[in-house]
Amino acid sequence: MEPKISIIVPIYNVENYLVKCIDSIINQSYKNLEIILVDDESPDNCGKICDDYKLKDDRIVVIHQKNKGLSGARNSGLNIATGDYIAFVDSDDWVDLNMYDTMIKIAKKYQLDMIECGITESDIEKNNTVEHAKIKIENTWQTLKRVLKTSQFSACTKLFKKSIIDDSRFLLNKTSEDIYFLFENISKMNKLGYFDYPFYYYRPNPEGITKSPYNLKRFNDSITACLFVKEKVMSLISYEKDLSQVEKNRELTTILSSFVLKELMYHYKMLNYYPKLDQNYIHRKRLKKLINENYFKSKTHSSNLKLAKSLPIVSFEIIIKLNKLKHRIFRTKHFS
């Protein structure tokens, strides 16, 4: 018997997109699916759409619940999932019709604990074909390097073996829930894979959390998640004195430091773009300290990072203000 895949779809206020999402799942070329639709007290017609689909397809399970947010909805799905593998799809996105057939075949062939595919924005044309896509079989070390370089932490591009994540749940009330979920579980995995074809279609949502106005909750959640990643990765580093291991440690810590600095710099610039969020410089002082602690010499560092390290906070704020003025005058986009 073919292994069953449980696909968990948290649903809230996506009436205009939900049909496309569900259709892309029920029409998968791989048929042994359990499709768990979690209506998270959606204020529109999403609940009815879910119930209508349940009448058409007996693989669909519908949960109607009081609003718990994205993580709470996913957790409700995890609590009842019966599949051998677990997948997640956000309800305003959709997936290629051959996504799960391809990924389960790779997972079975190489006995993987997790297989990941690429992701693309819904309005971006794919540059490659599935026939030319490559499979990369990785150990934990190699996967860590790849995801830190790409910052691709989304649970939706991954197919997990259920036995690996069975005791894990998504953290509530966090905007970086996927980061915590991935790094809590990756140390349990021995063999992982990456298929470099974008099977997952991400729909940029102007009302989504990453597109919402910058705020201190987003700042605090992101920095906390960033430091959590640093702590988890450092705990996985082996301190054997073997020369090859020393070189591996150096490579991974460099990649990790680059990731941390990139995250810190983004928020350092954003707080200088929106200084009213930090009028007493409390958060920028903290970020400045963290940047100095994580800084390492490299020719690849951006000029902004070098300035952030060397200049006083007020001087860097002036540079950002001038940059902001330039973008307003020439009507160009500032960083996002």
From TrEMBL:
CDD domains: Glyco_tranf_GTA_type
Annotated signal sequence range: none
Domain Glycosyltransferase 2-like: 6-165
Protein name: Glycosyl transferase family 2
Gene Ontology molecular function: any one: hexosyltransferase activity
Keyword vocabulary terms for this entry: Glycosyltransferase, Transferase
Pfam families: Glycos_transf_2
Organism: Ichthyenterobacterium magnum
InterPro entries in alphabetical order: Glyco_trans_2-like, Nucleotide-diphossugar_trans
Highest taxon of the lineage: Bacteria
